[in-house]
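tool_call predict_complex ligand=zinc ion
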Amino acid sequence: MSEREVVEGSTRFFIPEQDENSSFPPGSAAVFYNSRMRLNRDSTNYLLRQLDVSSYFDAMGASGVRGLRVAHECGIPVTINDLSPEAIALIRRNASLYPDHDITVTEEDCRAVMLRQRFDVVDLDPFGTPAPFVDIAATSARRYLFVTATDTAPLCGAHLKAGIRRYGARPMNTEYHSEVGLRILLGFVLRETAKYDRGIEPLFCFAREHFVRLHLRMTGGAGRTDNALKNIGYIHQCTACPWRMSEAAFLPTVQECPECGAKMSRMGPLWVGPINDPEILSQIAADLKADDMGESVLARLVTLLDEELSTPAFYNYHQLARHWHLSPSPVADVITAIRDAGYQASRTHYDGRGIKTDAPLHVLKSAIVTKK
Ligand SMILES: C[S@@+](CC[C@H](N)C(=O)[O-])C[C@H]1O[C@@H](n2cnc3c(N)ncnc32)[C@H](O)[C@@H]1O
Ligand SMILES: [Zn+2]
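tool_result ok
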């Protein structure tokens, strides 16, 4: 396998040469590496720098870049695993660049490792869906569970049946499908952990391009798990008008649109609670600033997450404008107009034209055109 050296953060490592050739899709080489997932890895490292962690398990290492960066940039002892012999050869070569770090390399199905060993942090980064791995990870992750999903089509409703099979929830292909996908994954993870009397607290979760990334704190005990389950619910979308709303409930009750009386369509069960911990976000923002990364893509993402209302579902206000045959004002003006009318409103990281608000539709309609 011919190799090429790359640097991410302050970590140097080798990847298969073939990967970055534009004629091949990312990951088509014997060992997977996708430079576009760098933001995903950066986010994890900045979070880990805020936490007190003594062991980290990179369950699906590929080149080992995640575990290597955590060891080198966060000073945390890591175990990097993969079941592919080619990946393990590369991980060992990359680990040998850092003889002073505490790096263990294992070559197994990650489920076998997680069945017998516990780690402060378990990080799942599979091809596509993490669904088959979350159950065992819930028993192995002592304090934190991190999960990437790249199967956005099943999660977001484009492949409805696959989504139902994998996640036991009903998505729907709406303009806010990326948020529905993230919340369905969160709801699924909680149901997998709850059977072991363990709950979750989202610390830093986001959807971007074709992936969802979750960083969760694991809690223990029946009471805290019951509390976490209070965040399970549904998003209801009116079949006749743009109205959408969420409901925290184990069994849904909403049937009719409160705006127009038409039948509501339902997505879920899914997580309807907050997806971020504001204190952690402000620590990460300060850390990024101190690193001269205050203008970086990651810093912009953290700022948006911090501003975003925690309630589910948003409107793409350009779609609303089309629906009402209006010409929309800039997003900042629309948000100000909604707030001036006495309602909450924010931008959202899911969509540059997305607005989260608790305002009724008539308020949104007059806010969309701020200059008459
Ligand atoms: C998407 S890649 C991981 C990418 C890597 N974490 C990164 O950030 O670049 C998925 C890896 O999981 C490995 N894999 C798939 N199933 C596995 C399993 N059951 N146990 C351990 N590794 C597995 C594959 O060999 C592949 O290298
Ligand atoms: Zn309606």
